Amino acid sequence: MQKISKTAEDDQRLDVAVSAMADCSRSQAAKWIEAGQCAVNGVARAKTSFKVQAGDLVEITVPDPVELTVEKEDIPLDILYEDEDVAVVVKPWGMVVHPAPGNESGTLVNALLYAMEDLSGIGGVKRPGIVHRLDKDTSGLLMIAKNDLAHESLSRQLKERTMDKRYLALVDGNLKEEAGLVAEPIARSKKDRKKMAVDPEGREAFTEWKVLERLKNGALLEVHILTGRTHQIRVHMQYIHHPVAGDPIYGAKNGIKASRLMLHAWKLSFDHPRTGERLSFVAEPPQEYMKILDRVRRETK
Predict the structure, then answer these.
(1) Where are the domains of the chain?
(2) Burial of 176 (0-12, 13-18, 19+ CB in 10 A)
(3) Where residue 31 falls among pLDDT bands split at 50, 70, 90?
(4) Any idea of the CA torsion for 226, 229, 230, 234, to the nearest 10 degrees?
(5) CA distances (Å), 188 to each of 225, 229, 235, 240, 261, in order?
(6) How far is residue 223's CA from residue 235's CA, in Å, rounded to a whole number?
(7) What is the C-alpha separation between 62 and 284, in angstroms, rounded?
(8) What is the pLDDT of residues 191-242, one digit of tens each?
(9) pLDDT digits (tens, 9 = 90+) for 149-158
(10) Catalytic residue from among 135, 137, 172, 247
(11) Could you confirm whether 135 is annotated as catalytic?
């Protein structure tokens, strides 16, 4: 274990203070805080939003790094594009993006390590090449960085919102408008730490949507996310009372029946890290998605 101690110079959130002290991301700082590894003036604090005052003594207990290995696995992978810098793949529904406790194998990363010789190392041992992620139950397009230069460029495009990511979402209920914007901050739920929720103290999140097709008791939407918060589309759609069909966490009990989450990463555009050329990709929904959508369409007639 390593101890880091510092006197706060400004009034700020605890996660911001810890991130600056330990030179780590706010998400990593939040994990340490929620695990009870951060104290203010000798008192452990578990809320990331706790306000640190100038002059407070902040102490962080950083766990020792664990030696990790991730095995290559010969798993079929749908690669739409690949060059020396980037790749674009289609993640199937039900596949976890990177290894985690309880999912050490069978992930997209295991498949990437087998299929590609080079992947960026910025994401660490368990996330080589991973610039952004999709939930296990979301299918569709993912970009992969094959070197650190590409990773930094793609990450910058995400941060500056010059990358374009669009999803197909089958949602419950009849929407009154043809299009809309949900601009509500998102944080981990105070009631259930496994969920995310709209929270005034959360990180800003923006989700644009428009109706592509109106169906019986639901609609097919094109969703454009301007930020990339965990479960963003699912949380925002639930917030406006039109949850994504088949959502086991945020879905409606009496909504459209679906055997999978009806969310698919449909379109992806970004600037090539080396050439600057604008690259655009489309991945049509997989067969199981279309079977459910076609069934709902038949019920509409």
Answers:
(1) 2-62, 66-160, 166-265+291-300
(2) exposed
(3) confident
(4) -50
(5) 19, 10, 11, 18, 20
(6) 13
(7) 44
(8) 887 899 999 989 999 999 999 999 989 999 999 999 989 999 999 999 999 9
(9) 999 999 999 9
(10) 135
(11) yes
Structure-block tokens of residue 176:
């009154």
The Cβ of residue 229 has, within 10 Å, a number of other Cβ atoms equal to: 19
**CATH topology classification for 2-62:** 3.10.290
Dist. CA 71–CA 49, nearest whole Å: 37
CATH number of 166-265+291-300: 3.30.2350.10
CATH number assigned to the domain covering 66-160: 3.30.2350.10
> CA separation (Å) from 226 to 130, 161, 284?
19, 6, 21
Question: Which are the contacts of 296, defined by CB distance < 8 A and separation ≥ 6?
Answer: 170, 215, 216, 218, 256
Which tokens hold the place of 240?
């406006």
One-character DSSP codes across 100-167: BTTB-SSSHHHHHHHH-S---STT-TTSTTBSS---TT-EEEEEEESSHHHHHHHHHHHHHT-SEEEE
Residues sharing a CB contact under 8 Å with residue 121, sequence separation 6 or more, in sequence order: 128, 148
With 0-12 / 13-18 / 19 or more C-beta atoms within 10 angstroms meaning exposed / middle / buried, residue 50 is middle
301-to-33, 66, 246 alpha-carbon distances in Å: 53, 57, 21
Place of tokens 């605890």: 14
SS3 category, 51? strand
Q: Are 139 and 78 contacting, i.e. CB atoms less than 8 angstroms apart?
A: no
| C-alpha dihedral, 253 to 257 to 259 to 263, nearest 10° | -90
Give the type of residue at 8.
Answer: A
Fold match between domain 66-160 and domain 166-265+291-300: yes
- Distance between CA 17 and CA 41 in Å, rounded? 14
Beta strands in the chain (DSSP E): 2-7, 12-13, 38-40, 43-44, 51-52, 57-62, 78-82, 86-91, 139-145, 164-172, 179-183, 186-188, 196-198, 206-215, 218-225, 263-271, 278-282
What's the predicted TM-score (pTM) here? 0.77
